[in-house]
């Protein structure tokens, strides 16, 4: 069973652009991958420009046969529904973080990542219990990864 997540960026215009990611949404994989390989704003923009993601990896990569799992693994590259499987380009835009969280909770019911002000943040319903955070309160991704270690 997949651990779904969403990945988004807060733009300078205040709009949040978000995509769905089907696999490995937990902190130890997608969280770590975003924190280590997607710190540059232009790389975040390039990632989101491809729309919904099947699997995140350290490289955005090039078009491959969606079912060639070995080649995606060897190239350490992302697998996108639009580029690699030919589906319609899909991403969502929101005017507030609450709107984004409500959509993401419904779509992914997992980890919710947000790039804003040059850093990654993460939200999960589990944080309300784990960290005593208020509902809809993001945690800095590095803090969440450190707490998990």
Please describe the biggest sheet, giving its number of strands, its sense, and whether it closes into a barrel.
Answer: 6 strands, mixed
Give the ordered list of helices and strands.
EEHHEHEHEHEEHEH
Count of individual domains? 1
Strand order of the largest sheet: 5-2-1-6-7-8
Shape: globular
Mean pLDDT comes to: 91
What structural category characterises the helix and strand content?
alpha+beta
Instruction: Pick out the low-confidence regions.
Output: none
What share of the residues does DSSP label as strand, in percent? 15-25%
Cα-atom radius of gyration: 15 Å
Percent helix: 25-40%
Distance from N terminus to C terminus (CA atoms, Å) equals 23 Å
What is the tally of helical segments?
Answer: 7
Number of strands: 8
How would you characterize the overall build of this protein?
The chain has one domain (5-148). β1 (5-10) and β2 (16-21) form a beta hairpin. It has 149 residues and is of the alpha+beta class. The protein starts with a strand and ends with a helix. It is built from 7 helices and 8 strands; from the N terminus they run ββααβαβαβαββαβα. A 6-stranded mixed sheet has the order 5-2-1-6-7-8, sandwiched between helices.
Question: Keywords for this structure?
Answer:
8 strands; single chain; 7 helices; six-stranded mixed β-sheet; two-stranded antiparallel sheet; globular; 149 residues; alpha+beta
